[in-house]
Amino acid sequence: MSEPLLDVKNLNVKFQLSSGDLPVSSDVSFTLEHGKVLGLIGESGSGKTVTSKAILRLLPSVGTAEADHIRFKGRDITALTAHEFDKLRGTDLAMIFQDPVGSFNPVKTIGWHFRAAGRVHPEGHGDIVGDAAEALRKVDIADPKTALGKYPHQLSGGMLQRCLIALVMFSRPSLIVADEPTTNLDNLVERQIIDLFDKLRKDIDASFIFITHDMTIAEQISDSIIVMYAGQIVEQGSAEALMQDPRHPYTQGLVKTARELEGNVETLTEISGEVGTGVWPQDRCRFAPRCPLHEAACDHAIALHDVEGHGEVRCIKAERKEPAI
Ligand SMILES: Nc1ncnc2c1ncn2[C@@H]1O[C@H](COP(=O)(O)OP(=O)(O)O)[C@@H](O)[C@H]1O
Ligand code: SF4
Ligand SMILES: [Mg+2]
Fold first, then answer.
1. Is the pTM of this model over 0.90?
2. 61 and 146 both lie in a single domain
3. Tell me: the pLDDT tens digits for 16-47?
């Protein structure tokens, strides 16, 4: 089997707060193949952003990350100097944030950003303006020449997000992390941008980590899915296996709600309780307070384990097929 594009082994992230160390992401391990999309899903506060920022070394100064390894194209990038890593992030690794505004310099035009990106790309662009216009056309911007002359504040949120996606594509990274890129957009624009990602992933030779709290979006766009809960992976596998036959009670609840939303039912199933804010029990199943299947045997740290023909699940009852929620 060929080497995966990204191979993350035992990533742990903590924040050093005045009140003490706060572990926010624990024992995260996964691989991502070339040209594939990994959907990272979980409710707000479950550790999706922190995990991906740790991989891209974008944590705030109070955050520290440790891992057995993070291999990108076979090379352990945890060993890179800050300078080497910055070079990689500007070229081969890229992140698209929820709010595109912060990714642009407000006093520079969109065209300036493309010219700056063109200069740092190792292969270079023979015709920066032509290539930039082509990238903007790919994200369905009808008049790229006009868009290149605009300042960020002159564009709507949806247009600016399209420009950011085009700018990232223009740099031809091998890995793009998109962190809830449609959350701040209205429903129609959200739909258009998701369809755009779906089209682009087939067009370009890049892999994506696509972070979302929306199971339906994850299903549409992903080859494989990771479900995070309280800083841990609770289930991972192919998008198909996970959506058709979810095994962790939390995943079962998410899938059930997604199906209900598609069916326009009047009352949605709720997973009662909430994930909390980072002070999670270390010595028992973290989902226990919300789990209808909880029993005494769940009151110790639960390992993620292989479920034959399915994927990996962090639940002692993962072999049981009937939905708990
Ligand atoms: N700057 C920070 N300082 C302290 N705790 C933080 C900070 N950012 C995130 N956290 C904590 O880390 C946990 C995971 O956050 P995050 O990765 O942003 O969740 P998600 O992206 O899944 O919504 C949260 O419980 C939050 O309390
Ligand atoms: S380990 Fe127990 S409490 Fe945790 S999800 Fe499974 S059944 Fe529920
Ligand atoms: Mg987030």
1. yes
2. no
3. 988 888 889 999 999 999 999 999 999 888 99
User: To test ligand 1's pocket by mutation, which of 13, 49, 62 has the most ligand atoms within 8 angstroms of CB?
Assistant: 49
The structural domain count of the chain equals 2
Whether 49 contacts 211, CB under 8 Å? yes
Q: What is the pLDDT of residues 53-110, one digit of tens each?
A: 999 999 999 999 999 999 999 999 999 999 999 989 878 999 998 888 999 999 999 9
Place of tokens 């809830």: 180
Spell out the long-range contacts of 114-119 with Cβ–Cβ below 8 A and sequence spacing 24 or more. 114/148, 114/167, 114/170, 117/167, 117/170, 117/171, 118/170
- Amino acid making up residue 155: L
**Residue 87, Cβ neighbours under 10 Å: how many?**
15
Examine the fold and report which residue of 147, 172, 197 is the final residue of a domain before the chain moves on.
172
Pocket of ligand 2 contains residue 293 by CB under 6 Å:
yes
Residue nearest atom 17 of ligand 1, based on CA coordinates: 47
**Domain membership flag for residue 60:** yes
Q: Ligand 1, from 26, 50, 232: best to mutate by most atoms within 8 Å of Cβ? A: 50
Determine the structural domain holding residue 33 and report its residue range.
6-92+173-313
